[in-house]
């Protein structure tokens, strides 16, 4: 009996890939947690999806799950099953437990500390496999979290921001398994919208990261309009942050790229300076392994679909050259494709764009791209651009 108990590991503490106890839990952008050695092996094999949800990974970064690591450490120290409140290895009491946690969050008699502790317990539960997240969703906790997150009315005390940060961190983990319809009223109710924008501008770095992910989720939801100028302005400001925090500005790029999917948002994005901000971001990323530069280029390509977008880029003295530098980047073929497509849009209509592209070294970049392992579609587009620029090819062999 003692040996069997020693070998039993709570489902919450098992890696979904190895099915063994986590040694170094890390969380992906989908909210799923894996043991670092096993998820790295999965990604190294060329897989670009989340093993549990099978969603395409838009971001390959891994965030250490310190909370789960802490609980595992406590469980190992006690040598027995460990759960914050209840022992429910089979999930039999999950509904009752969630109802109690939800009641704690809703009750006016609960102290701030009690609510914070309840949130931390929900956050731990949200680290588990999808079936438990569905239990969380059915309980209505996601909608409650959204209501709680944007009721601060512009307050920014340390205590309030700490509470909002925990609320949003939990909400983000529930997005893949939640009905996002409740986010619509955040956009349509002025007090909620004002709170959303305030937190984007004045919240902690973690709050801003969470809000960028919420904007991204809303942009992918066909039932929610996300072309509000205050939100767009606040997202763009993250790209222009004077300290150039690449993690935060990268989250802004992802949100901006998602916003570009809606035609109704493009005009406001361009008017608020999205093109210039994206070009500046790409320029800062030059010479780095910044994985968001390709995403920024994809956003620019979408903005160039509007006449205002083309005019905005051509007014930027570094616009065409920034795209040229993105034509060939090792391991970033999506960015390469968007750069080539963007240059095609510009060069088809503008002699000035063609001259800037050639003087910026686009011919060499295209030849390198054609020799790379990129797909046939990208190579076809590259050849089309070369043909378009053929009349400007240097005649002197020394310049080829």
TrEMBL record:
Gene3D superfamilies linked: Leucine-rich Repeat Variant, Zinc/RING finger domain, C3HC4 (zinc finger)
Biological or metabolic pathway of the protein: Protein modification; protein ubiquitination
Source taxon at top rank: Eukaryota
Record-annotated U-box domain positions: 8-82
PROSITE patterns in the record: U_BOX
Record-linked InterPro entries: ARM-like, ARM-type_fold, ARM_PUB, PUB22/23/24-like, RING-Ubox_PUB, Ubox_domain, Znf_RING/FYVE/PHD
Catalytic activity: S-ubiquitinyl-[E2 ubiquitin-conjugating enzyme]-L-cysteine + [acceptor protein]-L-lysine = [E2 ubiquitin-conjugating enzyme]-L-cysteine + N(6)-ubiquitinyl-[acceptor protein]-L-lysine
BP GO annotations: protein ubiquitination
SMART domains attached to this UniProt entry: Ubox
Keyword Ribosomal protein: no
GO MF entry, a single one: ubiquitin protein ligase activity
Keywords per UniProt: Transferase, Ubl conjugation pathway
E.C. designation(s): 2.3.2.27
Function: Functions as an E3 ubiquitin ligase.
Name by which UniProt lists this protein: U-box domain-containing protein
Species assigned in the record: Nepenthes gracilis (Slender pitcher plant)
């Amino acid at each position: 009996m003692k040996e069997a108990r020693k070998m039993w590991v709570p489902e919450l503490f098992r890696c979904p890939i190895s099915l063994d106890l986590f040694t170094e839990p890390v969380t992906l952008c989908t909210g799923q947690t894996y043991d670092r050695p096993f998820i790295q092996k999965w990604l190294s094999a060329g897989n670009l999806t989340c093993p549990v949800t099978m969603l395409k990974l838009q971001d390959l970064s891994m965030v250490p799950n310190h909370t789960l690591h802490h609980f595992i450490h406590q469980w190992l120290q006690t040598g027995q099953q460990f759960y914050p409140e209840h022992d429910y290895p089979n999930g039999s009491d999950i509904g009752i437990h969630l109802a109690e946690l939800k009641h704690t969050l809703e009750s006016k008699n609960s102290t701030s500390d009690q609510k914070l502790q309840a949130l931390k317990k929900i956050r731990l539960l949200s680290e588990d496999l999808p079936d438990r997240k569905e239990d969380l969703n059915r309980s209505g906790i996601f909608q409650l979290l959204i209501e709680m997150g944007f009721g601060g009315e512009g307050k920014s005390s340390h205590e309030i921001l700490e509470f909002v940060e925990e609320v949003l961190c939990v909400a983000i983990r529930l997005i893949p398994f939640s009905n996002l319809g409740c986010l619509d009223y955040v956009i349509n109710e002025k007090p909620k919208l004002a709170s959303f924008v305030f937190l984007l501008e004045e919240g902690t770095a973690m709050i801003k990261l969470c809000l960028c992910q919420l904007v991204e989720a809303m942009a992918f939801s066909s039932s929610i309009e996300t072309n509000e100028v205050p939100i767009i302005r606040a997202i763009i400001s993250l790209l222009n942050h004077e300290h150039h925090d690449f993690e935060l500005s990268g989250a802004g790029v992802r949100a901006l790229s998602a916003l570009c999917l809606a035609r109704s948002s493009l005009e406001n994005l361009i008017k608020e300076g999205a093109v210039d901000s994206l070009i500046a971001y790409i320029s800062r990323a030059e010479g780095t392994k910044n994985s968001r530069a390709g995403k920024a280029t994809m956003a620019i390509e979408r903005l160039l679909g509007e006449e205002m977008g083309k005019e905005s880029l051509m007014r930027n003295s570094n616009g065409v050259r920034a795209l040229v530098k993105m034509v060939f980047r090792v391991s970033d073929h999506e960015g390469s494709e968007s750069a080539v497509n963007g240059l095609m849009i510009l060069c088809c209509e503008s002699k000035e764009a063609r001259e800037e592209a050639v003087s910026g070294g686009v011919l060499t970049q295209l030849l390198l791209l054609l020799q790379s392992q990129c797909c046939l579609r990208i190579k076809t587009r590259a050849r089309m651009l070369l043909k378009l620029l053929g009349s400007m090819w240097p005649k002197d062999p020394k310049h080829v």
